[in-house]
Amino acid sequence: MPVLFTVDEVLAATQGRAQELAGTSIGSISIDSRELGPDALFVAIQGDRLDGHDFVAQALDNGAAAALVSRGEGPRRILVGDALEGLRDLARAARARSRALIVGVTGSVGKTTTKEAIRTVFEAAAETHASIKSFNNHWGVPLMLARMPVSAQFGVFEMGMSGPDEIRPLAQLVRPHIAVITTVAAAHLEAFGSLEGIARAKAEIFAGIEPGGTAVLNGDHPQLGVLLEQARADGISNIVTYGEARGVDWQILEIQTAADKSFATIEHNGERHALVLNVPGRHMVANATAALAVAHLAGVAMDVALRALAGFGLQAGRGQRRLLGPVEKPLLLIDESYNANTASMRAALEVFAAQSAPDGRKVVVLGDMLELGPQSAELHASLRDAVMEAGVERLYLVGPAMTALAAAMGRERVTAHTQTAAEMAPILRNDLAYGDAVMVKGSNGVGLSSIVGQIAKRFERT
Q1: β-strand pairing of 437-441 with 128-130
Q2: Strand-strand pairing, 262-268 and 271-277
């Protein structure tokens, strides 16, 4: 296992004090005592619900080489003033020594998928380090940055937010050469009050762009002007746009989507490129086009990028598709359970509209879209037309906010409505059948991933 940091480098970066520490190198960094890599440094951060200091002994028993702590005496510990700030210090040290081209990605919708598309393209060209899952917050970003090996030639980091002034410090930590904003939509609207407020918060990523860096912006939303204004105010002169809108630098033309694939022509500087994706949806074409624009800026050959994207797949909770049960009559499960807002709901329902059931019914399970503030009822009800156009035959709703959509749909069109995922799970287990196609989508806090797991367990037999 390559050395990530020597112990001396950890001490220098964090200004920490070693306690009975005999090891000389750190091969990995973790904040979870149950998931430790070789020669791991366990960082005992204080979380929203748990304090990592309660798990230091467990981490050391599980094989951690050392623990970065802000209190407590004992062997194999490095004592610092604040463990989370110590993690940020390691992130700064990893960034300062790196010669990689760094990309930061944010946006209301599609940031994880776009990050994964960029990672896929970069990995086809050179050693790449990227955020895992959705580690995009105040502890996830420094953890991912601290884990970046010095040998990486590309780095891709996702940045999320739930309120103002959250992306700026993350961007200043990552210091991207290229900053991507996928789109601006009604996500976390409760904290911002307007789409313009959301756009300005996303634009905080510009505060961290390296001198001479580039902003890559989706041109298919009304807040583009706000982003352009802020980018110029922050002194960014290199701006690249993409999307279906006329006049963008990377224009998407001739989109065709099928149940499991997408095809499009992408025009840039008078040249046209044939994009083929192994995933369905116009929004997936947009995410892939962002990756093409980034690849071009990074010097990755276009044929290499297009080949890599042709093999790009979706992740659990973000449109992953699974065929369960007998080959001749499977149940198709589409897992969109990780997150939801009006834009991603409509995009997922548009994809589902093109999907036929293997040999049964088209079923949709929708959970509440959280943090939408006073407009929540209106935004939930606004999904009615998208549901109708998707050809849904059985509609299951989960959560109190979905009352507004239930009223808009009419009682006769709603198969069942429960307040919690736990209440809905047994209903679905009994109602679904092999041959059905079922899509499950809602905000992560609603807990629909548990429903996905139970459906999979019930039908994953041959």
Answers
A1: unpaired
A2: antiparallel
**DSSP string covering 279-335, please?**
S--HHHHHHHHHHHHHHHHHT--HHHHHHHHHT--PPTTTTEEEEES-TTSPEEEEE
Q: Are residues 132 and 225 in the same domain?
A: yes
Q: Quick one: which H or E segment has residue 217?
A: strand 214-218
Task: Work out whether the CA dihedral 76, 80, 83, 84 comes out positive or negative.
Answer: negative
Largest CA distance in the chain: 69
25 in Cβ contact with 39 (< 8 Å): yes
- For all residues of the chain together, what is the average pLDDT? 92
The whole model's pTM is what?
A: 0.79
Give me the helix-helix angle, 282-298 and 342-353, nearest 10°. Answer: 110
3-class DSSP state of 417? strand
pLDDT in tens, 233-269: 999 999 999 999 999 999 999 998 877 789 999 999 9
SS3 assignment, position 368? coil
Domain end point (choices 310, 329, 345): 310
Residue 90 domain flag:
no
Kindly tell me the burial class for residue 417, based on how many C-beta atoms sit within 10 Å of its own C-beta (0-12, 13-18, 19 or more): buried
Paired tokens of 333:
């499960």
Segment 37-47 shows an average pLDDT of 91
Count CB neighbours of 206 within 10 A: 24
Residues 6+ apart with CB under 8 A from 233: none
261/276 Cα distance (integer angstroms): 7
Distance, in Å, from the CA atom of 319 to the CA atom of 52, rounded to the nearest integer, reads 33
Single out the residue in 310, 331, 350 at which a domain terminates.
310
Per-residue pLDDT tens over the stretch 76-119: 999 999 999 999 999 999 999 999 999 999 998 889 999 999 99
Measure the CA–CA gap between 130 and 120, rounded to whole angstroms.
Answer: 10
Range of the domain at 361: 320-459
Per the document, the length of the chain is 462
DSSP 356: P
pLDDT above 50: residue 462: no
CB neighbourhood size of 88 (10 A): 22
Within 8 A by CB and 6+ apart from 17, the residues are 11, 78, 79, 80
If asked whether residues 292 and 375 sit together in one domain, one would say: no
Phi-psi region of 63 (alpha: psi -120 to 50; beta: other; left: phi over 0): left
